[in-house]
Amino acid sequence: MRTGATAAQPHVLTALGDASRTAVIAFWLLLPLIGFETVTNINDQLILTTRFPLLAAFVAIAGAGRFVYSFSVAPWLARRALLAPKTAAPSRRDGLRKWLLPFGFGFVLVYPLIAIAAVGKVGAVKWIDNFGNQILIYVMLGLGLNIVVGLAGLLDLGYVAFYAVGAYSYALLAKTFGLTFWILLPLAGVLASFWGILLGFPVLRLRGDYLAIVTLAFGEIIRLIIINWVALTNGYAGIIGIPRPTLFGIPFDASDNGFAAVFGLEFSPVYRVTFLYYIVLALVLLTCFVTLRLRRLPIGRAWEALREDEIACRSLGINTTNAKLTAFAMGAMFAGFAGSFFAARESFISPESFTFIESATILSIVVLGGMGSQIGVALAAILLIGATEIMRQLDFLKHIFGPTFDPTQYRMLLVGLAMVLMMIWRPRGLITTRTPSVFLKERKVISADLVKEGRG
Amino acid sequence: MDYFVQQLINGITLGSIYGLIAIGYTMVFGIIGMVNFAHGDVFMVSAFIALIAFLILTAWLGISSIALALFVVLIVAMAFTSLINWVIERVAYRPLRGSFRLAPLISAIGMSIFLSNFVQVTQGPRNKSIPPMIQGEFVLLNRDNFPVTLSYKQLIIWGATAALLAAFWYLVAKTPLGRAQRACEQDQKMAALVGVNVDFTISMTFVIAAALAAVAGTMYLMYYGVVTFSDGFVPGVKAFTAAVLGGIGSLPGAVVGGLLIGLIETLWSAYFSIDYKDVAAFSVLAITLIFLPQGLFGRPDVEKV
Hints:
The structure holds 2 protein chains of 2 kinds.
Chain A: H1 2-7, H2 12-35, E1 36-40, E2 46-50, H3 52-83, H4 91-151, H5 160-177, H6 181-200, H7 208-228, H8 230-233, E3 239-240, H9 259-262, H10 269-296, H11 298-308, H12 310-315, H13 320-346, E4 348-349, H14 356-369, H15 374-393, H16 396-401, H17 411-425, H18 448-452
Antiparallel strand pairs in A: 1-2, 3-4
Chain B: H1 2-32, H2 39-60, H3 66-93, H4 103-123, E1 128-129, E2 137-143, E3 146-151, H5 152-174, H6 176-186, H7 188-193, H8 198-224, E4 226-227, H9 233-246, H10 251-271, H11 277-291
Antiparallel strand pairs in B: 1-4, 2-3
Helix pairs in contact in B: 1-5, 1-8, 1-9, 1-10, 2-3, 2-4, 2-8, 2-9, 3-8, 5-6, 5-8, 6-8, 9-10, 9-11, 10-11
């Protein structure tokens, strides 16, 4: 104990040495891309400009950060590692969890009403549509991918393909055959899950990382086909004028038999977005509920067993082929639902919405949320998508950093960084504690340490 | 026939670039069993470094000899890219050794997103194009007014690829470092017990992989004369396809796979449909992994508890 404490004693010179080494590395690391900028001038020629003050600032930040780390954070961590008792599970957090869920659920349920009450009907459209509906679509995609990645442990990098299948199924069938949203929603899910099985079938024998790359290839193939099969999908231009969902045949438009007219209300788009909000909320809750129930069925247990150890699974006689295929199909089905809702909400779709970046965003929602945790997925989606939308609204930053400053361009940069940091610090995500799906007498929350070892 | 020969020349050129990137995938996979998803973006970053170095040399220092400029650009790009990949390995992959199976892959995906967006933020999202560095070509055949040409650019790419592969083969086969790498590939714990510095060897693997990617990046810039922040993704996946096709872990396999993918892509564009050329390459990846997961030169993957 005593020796450990002295060994961890900070030393200014060591810390300074560390800091200067870091600064030197940071200088050479950032010199080409931050020190110089390639700009196209008026004559359409590429010229170089320098940004040495910016480079110096970054190097100084790196050096100072390293100094603080070596001088105070590292010794503190070392001391804490020596002192910290191994038994954890604070009860305060359990209490928080108990309250968080009903409170969050209640808030989500009345969110549109709060928005209308707070900013009026006109202002609320933005809050309900951009925040509520968009975040809920991503929550749903996250929950769907969570089945594949979080429960079954199959890394799917082409998840957006099923989202695209759902969206295009709805758009094409609705426009060609005039079928309504309520018929096409389940149909889109079925079609997407059919594609899930179709794509899942050949890749079953593959190991985790190979599987990831092949699903990525499949995702790209589907996107390229959508782009190039212009006769069917109208290519890059996309499909416009996709019909919106109706309430038992009552459309949400300004016409005489529209929702507002029938109920004797003044027309406002806020009714439509609120209606959409409750549709997607219902879909999210359905996804949650189905996943929860599935986890208790033999197939859900098989998924989680598969995630932990495939060989052990096979030795115990679990049909891994069926388990993997159903995971793929279930995940794809929810992506299909989300896709058809997306098409109905936007009323316009194009291949731009289904790029790899989208897959990566959904994956990062699952990873940040803690693979397997549903509340975690919801929180991560709110954090990630909500933060992007909020960044769009932050006009005051333009006054600080100049008029060309656009905070949204840093979004994916931060997402990438967050994925790396998450893997290093909390590989099992924000919500690390999990309720086990099997328990003997009483329900116990498994502490983060054990989950990390793969026992959750 | 002449058309075919011309496509063959173009395909081999493209294939050389893919082969150089593919070696990076195959080496890293061989030694730590991880798909380095960010490798394509390391390649893209190296093309940007080459672009900046080229502009400094020609526009600021006024070097007029293209051969000298190209040589210096190559060295600079290799040095900086190696440093970047070394830091990436230290920061994003080393702490994850011994973590759960998918952790390094997810970290690499994050790193890939980070790199491409970092370049987008720092250098802007537009295409960066430079005037052609090298012009001129040999006319090999000229029948029916269809000249089959081999441009100087293509010749340089062939030459540089061949020379670097030879140097690289020597490094892996004959030097102590190469021996340490092969030892780590077989059994890291055992290699550590007999005195191989495993951490250093893995770091050096990333450095070599990055250096070869930088050669590919410089050649890419010289050949096409244009680069953007998103240029790492598709070549990265294609080079990975090449590595898988050749048998991941096998170095000659990566080169052969690269050449095959280059040829498939070029011939597909020439004879079928240029719109679907990426579909062709991605399909090759899927088909190989499904029917021939060990690739052309790889050992079958034995799963152990």
